[in-house]
Amino acid sequence: PDRSDVHQVTDKLFFQASSGPAPIRAPLLPGPPSPAAAAAEKPTQDGIFSHRSGHSSPPSARSLSAEDQKREKERLQEMVRNFAKLGVQGQKCSWLPVATGGPRTAVYSFDKTLRHFRVSSEKGSSMTLKMTDIIDVIKDVRETPYLEFLQLPHEEALIGQAKQVRVGPQTMWQNNHSREDLESRFVCLKHDSKDGGQLEFLGLLVANAYERERFFTCMKILRWAIEAKSEPA
């Protein structure tokens, strides 16, 4: 899709989200990875991106003046623009199973209207969600069914330590990633089921902690804006 088309959609949605009765303001995010850290973040054999240190510290919170609020709004608008542009192109991630099996190397993407979110695995399986069907965006694994999946024997487990209670690809995957690393990249979409029954969860691991915070913030804004636009006046 043409970049200007995506920008037009995000700008319109951003205006709705930022000028409504309860405008959303982005949290202070950690800085993007340094070039060296970004180069080090390569997918491992199982397709999961390995998180390395090298991110700048977030600025301290403070009361925003009118000028600061303007800059914050511009920063947020640019962040949503970039997130949407990259999302339409497709971004690598790992798709987590709710029940059994290992994570699947995948790509998440949006359609050019930003009304549908899709995850496609490299083996051909896929899932498409309407943005209006997404109930919440969650980054605390304890609020999802994935806690046991990310659990390692010890909180400070080191890469390479084995967990013998599971077998198959899931165990092999867990052996190569610490719990802290996994949780720093975990994000989850809580959504309506297709049959209108119990709510369901879609868990992903993105490249690093910065991308997790950006995904969390921008998805909340886009979902809120699309939902607001869909409501009758």
Summarize the entry for a quick read.
The chain has 233 residues and is α+β, with helices and mostly antiparallel strands. The protein is built from 7 helices and 7 strands; from the N terminus they run αααβββββαααββα.
Helix/strand structural class: alpha+beta
- What's the total count of β strands? 7
End-to-end Cα distance, whole Å, is 30 Å
Instruction: List the strand order in the largest sheet.
Output: 4-3-2-1-7-6-5
Number of separate helices:
7
Kindly estimate the percentage of residues that lie in beta strands according to DSSP: 15-25%
Account of the protein in words:
- There is one protein chain.
- This protein has a 7-stranded antiparallel β-sheet.
- The protein has 233 residues and is α+β, with helices and mostly antiparallel strands.
- Helix 1 packs across helix 3 (66-89), helix 1 crosses helix 7 and helix 3 packs across helix 7.
- The chain has helices at residues 3-19, 35-40, 66-89, 147-150, 169-175, 179-184, 209-230; strands at residues 91-96, 104-110, 116-121, 126-130, 134-138, 186-191, 200-205.
- The two termini are 30 Å apart.
- The chain has 7 helices and 7 strands.
- Strand 3 and strand 4 (126-130) form a beta hairpin.
